[in-house]
Amino acid sequence: MLILNKEQKIERTKWIEPAEGLKLLVGSANDSRYQSVSATAYRHIERLDSKMKVGTSDFDISKVDTSQPLDELLMFTVAQYLLKDWQGVGELNAKGEQVAIEYTPERGARLLKQCPDIYWKVIDAAVELSKEESEQIDETIKKS
C-alpha cells in the first residue's frame, strides 16, 4: 500500500510595523487561495466596468451601484488570506477602556477599511515576500 503524505505547506510571513505601536503579520501574495479569490474579484470588477462602459463616453457615474463598494471586496480578501495576526489593535470596552483584541479576518477588514493606507502597506509587504520566495526558489534550482 502506498501511503500519501499530508501536504505540508510552508508559508512565509513577516511582521511589519505600518504605524507606531501597530504590528501586522503578513503572508505572501503567492498564497494560492489569495490569488484565486483575488482573480475572481478582479474578473467581477472587469465585467462591471464593461457593463457600465467605464472608459468610454457612454459611462455615467450616476448609475454606479455603491451598495457594496468593490474596495471592501478586495480588502476582505487581503484580510482573509494575507493578514495573519496583529499586535497593537484594540477596542473600547463598556467602561471606555482600551482592550487588545485578537485578529479575525472580519476585524482585519474593518481595520483596512478604516485605514486604507495600511491596506496598501500589507499588499506591498505581501508582494515583497512573494518576490523573496521566487528568488529563493531560483537559487535552489541553480544549486541543484
UniProtKB/TrEMBL annotation:
It comes from the Bacteria. This is Uncharacterized protein. It comes from Providencia stuartii (strain MRSN 2154).
